[in-house]
Design goal:
By secondary structure, this protein is of the alpha/beta class. Helix content is about 40%, strand content about 15%. It has 11 helices and 9 strands. It is globular. The chain binds phosphoric acid mono(formamide)ester (CP).
């Protein structure tokens, strides 16, 4: 998100709009990227992002190939760059990469000719998640500028939080972050956000509350006494949400820990946009693939109309 201008973000969201209804048709496919190939290279587990890139590519008629770290020769000691060069030798148009190391996609992009899309790198960024979150907020609220958004949870280890802080502030939202002080790094105000650790205060009068998963896999030591205490002090339930605006919506990038950061009642309730986020992820990733290897937005709209 750091690399994208406001105009870039706007273009991606508008292009996603033109692709969204393809997923609602009986025949969910257009020929836009026929003959193009997309490699999904996931070095970390994923349900939503990997599936959604694959669905997005297939709905645009691109060929897709998947590679996981455990099934690649990286387990035999091959470096990321060598793996990338070997993939490049098979002439893919796009490599989508998720990696546990921050900066891995940027390193790969220097070593290959294919377009590289960051599907989440360490604790750095998860830009396509932030883009689908922006799309979902705009779709529900009709705008992003001027909205009050709280991001609550494990800020320190969340690439989703970083990408959303960058994206939301670029698009003119007022962002407040909250969560255990042990999970909020010093200096977060540099992102242009307000820091209010107590979630009960952080969500007051908010239009959108985005809850985050505790990234236990990225913590070197436990940063709170127990899951029960975390839930009691920092979890969100229907009662706690009463201090937000009456039409406040709840978001979560998934996977959710039910009963820890969010109650089931809230996650499955009418204010929840969690599954809208997943559905919109396909349209946003179709837009990204199209804009990288398909042509201009005007062409996208024309081709979509022709196909429709
Ligand atoms: N939101 C997200 O990145 O989910 P996955 O880890 O399942 O891809």
């Amino acid at each position: 998100m750091g690399q994208l201008s406001v105009d870039d973000i706007q273009l991606i969201l508008d292009t996603a709009d033109s692709f969204k209804d393809i997923s609602l048709r009986e025949i969910k496919k257009v020929p836009t990227l026929r003959g193009k190939s997309v490699v999904n290279f996931f070095y970390e587990a994923s349900t939503r992002t990997r599936t959604s890139f694959e669905v997005a590519a297939k709905r645009l008629s691109a060929d897709t190939f998947s590679l996981t770290a455990s099934a690649s020769s990286m387990v035999k000691g091959e470096t990321l760059l060598d793996t990338g060069r070997n993939l490049q030798a098979m002439s893919p148009d796009v490599i989508v990469i998720r990696h546990s190391s921050s900066g891995a996609p940027h390193l790969l992009a220097k070593g290959v000719k294919a377009c590289v899309v960051n599907a989440g790198d360490g604790i750095n960024e998860h830009p396509t998640q932030a883009l689908l979150d922006l799309y979902t907020i705009r779709e529900r609220k009709g705008r992003i500028r001027g909205l009050n958004v709280a991001i609550i949870g494990d800020i320190a280890h969340s690439r989703v939080a970083r990408s959303n802080m960058i994206g939301l502030t670029k698009m003119g939202a007022n962002v407040t972050i909250g969560g255990p002080p042990t999970m909020i790094p010093v200096g977060m105000e540099a992102f242009g956000v307000e820091v209010v650790p107590d979630p009960r205060k952080a969500i007051r009068e908010k239009d959108v509350v985005m809850m985050l998963r505790i990234q236990l896999e990225r913590q070197r030591k436990t940063l709170f006494p127990s899951l029960r205490e975390y839930s009691a002090a920092f979890g969100l339930d229907t009662e706690a949400l009463k201090s937000a605006k009456p039409d406040c919506v709840i978001m979560h990038p998934g996977p959710i820990n039910r009963g820890v950061e969010i109650s089931s009642e809230l996650a499955d309730g009418p204010a929840s946009l969690i599954l809208d986020q997943v559905a919109n992820g396909v349209a946003v990733r179709m837009a990204i693939l199209y804009l990288l290897i398909g042509g201009s937005k005007a062409d996208a709209v024309d081709k979509e109309r022709t196909a429709g």
